[in-house]
Assimilatory nitrite reductase large subunit (Methylomonas koyamae), 407 residues
Amino acid sequence: MKLKLVVIGNGMAGMRTVDELLQLAPERYQITVFGAEPHGNYNRIMLTPVLFGAKSIAEIMIHDFDWYRKHGITLHCGTDKAVVGVDRSRRCVVAKDGTEAEYDYLLLATGSLPLMLDIPGRDLRGVLGFRDIADVQTMIAAAASKTHAVILGGGLLGLEAANGLLQRGMQVSVVNRAGHLLNKQLDRQAAGFLQQQLAGKGIDFHLGCTISRILGEDGQIQAVQLSNGEVLAADLLVMSTGIKPNIALAERIGLECERGVIVDDLMQTSDPRIFSVGECVQHRGELFGLVAPVYEQAKVCARQLSGHAGSIYQTLSSATMLKVTGIDLFSVGDFEGDADCQVLQLIDHGLGVYKKIVLRGDIVVGVILYGDTSDSAWYLNLVKQKTPIAAIRDRLIFGQTPLAAAA
């Protein structure tokens, strides 16, 4: 008799865990999956190329409906299949339309929600996040018939939305509270290079301010007023000001939560029958928004569910690569440094190249590469493996290729 595994959340984290589990113990579970979107599991990271027009929705599917059938997995998907309750004593999950599924083990992978700031007028049509296929379809439809797009947030996702809408013919303005773009991934100097390049493509920037009011007529957005008083025309406002773990269900059913669902090193929640992975979790005080650590969690969780003990989750350095067409950008680790750090820099305005390496002693702790990211994998390994670089320090800024030639 197979054990019953129910997965709440049909996204990348939950389904990567299922993938790993099918490899480790294909016959161990009868698997049921609940997802609130009316699709199979797709690669959320690839929503940007869909917005650009470089990929179709079919091309970003990781698991189409046939895959679930082929593996004997029951998939309940769509808004009426969103899980609204879990009876932990009966070990039973209940969806919005009354669908029930019993479990021996439950995997909670509810992901995150876009932070929709509480700005007056945010309920107007044309105000949205950039989180799922429906958001992208709304943006593509707007670009076909409207002119002005405003993006609130100068982070990775905001810049990708800005570039995608620009490529679809809209006039795009980016509003960012911080004084420079990608302030979590770049220092001011690298951000200056980036802003210059994006402005050259036609994107308009309003930095060091935010949106104080959203203005509209007949329920449709028409403009935004900035905190400095300026008014920008807006047929579409994309809020890209971050994400927050989607923990409403976990809180409702009494799991221990702080900012996220608290998990231990085995990805187990406060209920030993319930595991959790992805952007909804909090592990040793940390939250997650990048795919690499989430996939690592999936691997650890699958080992626990398969009965192979001994694997624990440890947080790793995550690198950032920007997917805006024609821009090469990489950053990892502590790129600001502190009083105990030394900084190596190479700046070539003519070529538009900026390299910054932050050292603590003879260990690389942070790197920013702009304009030339050919050695990014090599630098990432130096950071992750804490490789002593004393012997190559004088050539470190030039990357791996000159080092190989000099050897």
Q: What stands out?
A: The mean pLDDT is 93. The domain at 3-113+243-306 is CATH 3.50.50.60 (FAD/NAD(P)-binding domain).
